[in-house]
Amino acid sequence: MLSPDVLAGHVERISTVGWTVVESAIEPELIASLIEDLNETEERLKAVPANNVFEGYSTLRVYNLLARSEIWQQVPVHANVLPIVEQVLDAGCLISSLSSIRIQPGEKQQPLHADDQLIPVARPHEPFVCNSMWALTDFTEENGATRLVSGSHLLDSAPDFGSDYETVPAEMESGSVLIWNGSLWHGGGANSTKKDRVGIAMNYCAGFLRQQENQQLGIPREVAATFSPLLQRLAGYGIYNGLMGHINKSDPKFLLKNPTKLGSGPMVWDAIG
């Protein structure tokens, strides 16, 4: 659990520099379990590179991890990560996507980009997206540590795709977590070593924004019903500011309790009186 001072420090760094690293954030036992499950999932799915310049020619990715195995339910709600994200966005934030990124030997640098650059809003702007990268293995400049352009979240444009910019590598040990403002320019690094660089992209967005992965359709309802109330809300089974996401004036979380009956719930109009 982060102390108030440590939490405030990370939030301030994201505000000013655009990113921060929470060192030794994740328990070694959880990291080991995630690695084991990811290895099994990649083998089961016969994961192969997407073979495009953005996702990589020597990079394995698995999307929609919450639908794959119960172990992934611990990732979005982790107490050393979520409180920082909630401070950058707000307590009504949502899971945007949860995926793995295994950068294999020989992979080239990913083009720099901003995770919110497809949102048609003038830049700079208040944070709509706050993303994190969990280091399941050590991240080094040589094996593909995420490259960052500090302060770029305050600029009035996204990077020109494919252009070169001065970057710093987010080097960190296994179990650490990189968290950044979604407007920050960044990209995966090149892997010139003989070992994989394995990370988990745990991405969040504001509650009023459409999620990158469709959580409600991508995760079977019977699986979502096993989630904790907090994880259900993060996946989108909730309403934002008493309005957004409702079904006939009802919180969609009731569908997980009884698929044939919606429950009642207070809406913004009820609060007005």
UniProtKB/TrEMBL annotation:
Q: Where is the signal peptide?
A: none
**Pfam family for this entry, one:** PhyH
A Gene Ontology molecular function term of the record:
metal ion binding
User: Which PANTHER family does the record match to this protein?
Assistant: ECTOINE DIOXYGENASE, PHYTANOYL-COA DIOXYGENASE DOMAIN CONTAINING 1
Task: State what protein this is by name.
Answer: Unannotated protein
Q: Source species, please? A: freshwater metagenome
* Taxonomic path: unclassified sequences, metagenomes, ecological metagenomes
